[in-house]
Amino acid sequence: MKKLLVISMVIMISLFAFSKDFVVKDMFTPETPKLGGRVTTALSSAPQSFNLYGTLDNAAYTIIPNVLSPLVEANPITNEIEPGLAESWDVSADGKEVTFHLRDVKWSDGVQFNANDVIFTLDYFVMNKFAEGNSIARYTINGELVKWEKVDNMTVKATLPAPYGAFFTVLAQAPIYPEHKVSELFNKNDLGSVNKIWTTDTNVKDIVSTGPYLIDNYVVDQKVILKRNPNFWKVDKWGNRLPYVDTFEYLIVKDAEVAMAKFMAGEIDYIKVNSKDYPVLKQKELQGADFVIFRGQPSKPTPSPLHITFNFDAKNDSLKELFRNDKFRQAMEYALDRDRIIDEVYNTLAVYGGVPVLPSNKGFYNPKIEEIRRSFNLTKASKMLDELGLKDIDNDGIREMKNGEDLSIVLLTKTTQEFQDIAYLYSEDLKNIGVKMNLQILDAGLQSQKALSGDFEMSLWAFGNQPDPQLRKAIWQPGNPLYYNHLSTMDSETRTAVKSEMYDWELEVWNMFEKGQTEMNIDQRKSYYDKWQEIYAEKVPFIFVCKGMDLMGAQNSVGNFYQMDDGTLVYLTYTVFDK
Fold this sequence. Notes:
Blueprint: E1 22-23, E2 38-43, H1 58-63, E3 72-74, E4 81-83, E5 86-91, E6 97-102, H2 115-126, E7 140-141, E8 144-145, E9 147-152, E10 155-159, H3 167-171, H4 179-182, E11 213-219, E12 223-228, E13 234-235, E14 247-252, H5 256-264, E15 270-272, H6 278-286, E16 291-296, E17 307-310, H7 317-323, H8 326-334, H9 338-344, E18 350-352, H10 369-372, H11 378-387, E19 408-414, H12 417-431, E20 436-442, H13 444-452, E21 458-461, H14 473-476, H15 504-518, H16 522-539, E22 542-544, E23 546-548, E24 550-555, E25 558-559, E26 562-563, E27 569-570, E28 577-578
Parallel strand pairs: 1-13, 2-14, 19-20, 19-21
Antiparallel strand pairs: 3-4, 5-6, 6-10, 7-8, 9-10, 11-12, 12-14, 15-24, 16-24, 17-21, 17-22, 18-23, 25-28, 26-27
Helix pairs in contact: 8-11, 15-16
C-alpha cells in the first residue's frame, strides 16, 4: 500500500524559520557582481494594466512580478517552494489549515507590510470572480473556496475545504497588493471595479513595491523603466542586497526584426531569439560578436506550446456539428504537419508540444500520449473526411457539408510571425484535402478578446502550460471561462460549471482535475493528470502543435546569465548585472 502523504511536499510539513533577509541560491549568483548600472531587455507589446488580476496580458505578467512579491515562491529552476512574504508557515495534521508567519517587510513607501494586505488581495483580487484575471478556480476545492483569516497583524491562516496538493504552487503565482493603496480604489458593492485599479494611466508613484524594483516611469508604447527597491528582502551569499542594477528597463518593440537589430547594436542587453534568426546570430557569435546565443532545452512553462482548437459553440450550425465530432477533429490532426512546421518555422529548434505537459516535466508528463498522437497523413485525413460524408460534389476542389455549403473554416490567430507561418502551412495542407481555411490574423489584444468571448470558428493560440497541471485548471477543465472552445459548459452569470452541457469525456476530465486537486498521494495525483492527457490526445479538443526551444541572446556585458550542463538557462532580473 502506497504511503499516503498528509501533504505533497516535505517542505510543507515543518515550520520554517528564516531571517528577515532571504539568501538566493548560489546557482543564480555564480559571478562576483558589479553594483549599479542598467540592464535592458525587450517587450513585444505594451502593458494593458499594472493590475495582474484586472487583465489577461502577458506584458503585465512579465513586469509586475518585479514589483510585487507572493507569500511563497517557486524556485524558477527547481520549482521547489521557498519563502516569500511569508518567512515561515506550518500545516495542521489533517492538511486543511496552513498558518503563515509574515516577513517583517516595509512597502517601498515605508508602510509596514501586514496581514491586511494578504487578506484583501486574496479575497478581493485573487478570488474575485469578477476580476478579469482572477485565479478563483485555483482556490476552489470540491466546490468551496479556500477561506482566509487574519490571526494578528503578522499572521494569516488559510482554511482549505480539503487537502490541496497544489496549494503552495498556486500561492507562488499570487503577488500581494498593498491594501492601503488599493482598498480606497475598490468598491465592495461593485466587485468588477477591481479591473479599473492600477490601469496604465495610473501615476506610477502611487504603485508601491515589495519586489526588487519600483516602476519609475512608463512611456506609453515605448518603455517601462524600473528602478531598484532599496528595501527588497533578498540578498546574495556575500550579503549584497538585491537587485544589483539601479535601473532595469523594458523597451517595447513590437516588430521582432527591429528588436533584433537593437540587440545586435547593443541597445538591448538580453532578448528572446526567434528561431529564424538563430543560425545567423550564432554565426556572428562564432565570428567574434560581443554577445552569446543560447540554445536551451524547453523546460519553462512560458511561452506555452501552440495549439489549434475548434469552437464547440460555433455560430454556424453545420460547423458546430463537425467540430463536436471526434472523427472530424482526429482527421484535422492528421492534416497537421508538425515536422514541417518545426523545420520551416522553427529552423528545427522546437519539439512536439505535449498535451500540453512538456516531456521535460518529469513529474507530470505522460509518455502514453506519444502512442495516441496522430502523425501527419493526408491520406488518412482525407479518408476520414470521406467517411463523414464530406465530399467535393461540384468538383471545385472544396468539400461540401451536408447542407450543401462549402467546407470553409475561419482560423483565428494573431500577428506574431510564427503564428502566421503555422496558420499558412496548415491551410495549405488542408487545401490539398478539400478543406478551405481562411485566416483571420489580428492584433494580439483583439485576437484574445474574440477568442475568450467565443467569437471564432477555429483558433491557433498558445497558453496554458505550468509545472503543475492544477495551475491551469481554469483553462483545461471544462466549465471554466478560459475553456474557450466550449463556453456553454459554464454559466456566464454564476461562473459555475454546467455539467449537462459536457460530453462524457469532458465530464471525466472535469472529475480528474477535481480529484487531482485534493489528492495528496503524489503517484495518485499523477495518475489523474495522466488520464486527462490521454483523453485529450484521443479526443483532440485541442491539437497541440509544438514548443520552441529556449533561445536567448545576451551581451557579454551581462553578468549571471549562463547555461547549466543540462541545457537549462539561468538568469533572474534581480541577479543579472552590468559588467
